[in-house]
Amino acid sequence: xxxxxxxxxxxxxxxxxxxxxxxxxxxxxxxxxxxxxxxxxxxxxxxxxxxxxxxxxxxxxxxxxxxxxxxxxxxxxxxxxxxxxxxxxxxxxxxxxxxxxxxxxxxxxxxxxxxxxxxxxxxxxxxxxxxxxxxxxxxxxxxxxxxxxxxxxxxxxxxxxxxxxxxxxxxxxxxxxxxxxxxxxxxxxxxxxxxxxxxxxxxxxxxxxxxxxxxxxxxxxxxxxxxxxxxxxxxxxxxxxxxxxxx
Length: 247
Fold this sequence. Notes:
single chain; mainly alpha; Serine Threonine Protein Phosphatase 5, Tetratricopeptide repeat; 54% helix; SEC-C motif domain protein
């Protein structure tokens, strides 16, 4: 994947850039190195919030030609986000780092952190299934709204409760432990929750992607990362990635 394109579409960072910012100009060549060194010191002293701020600026200023440096910056950015509890954005940062620099250590970190859905691994397979079902249904709900985010905590709590009630029905109807990942995803996508907001969905609303029959979960991702498609571009997004901009 082209590096400037990767930077441009890394939304948690790009969202905060002011208009007219040019990534990696000549005058920033030394500045991004200083920022990274300072961020590493903050991480070593457990000043994660300060390190996160510096690493965001570092990624913004780093010239796209310095792939090794940019990959390290994204790697450290992921560590900072994970420490802050932003697990979904942390995973995105690690995947961005691996696409830039295919380092075996980073690949092991990514694969050890992911479950079969390409989401961050939970304590049990049952929790993995619940998180996948929840994320799919939240995405369906938010995609039906013009604002694409929750307006209040009360709205989110109401949707959470509704999804949980449907999840209990799914567990009663299916033995999920006997199904493959593709089959479970198909089941989760087939469950159509009647959300209050979805009564007003226009006909042209964008449908969710559903795995096609014969889909191979282990096939390589088309982005060139070398990771399985379902653990890379085809992964199920974590719920905290879908909540961006809420409340």
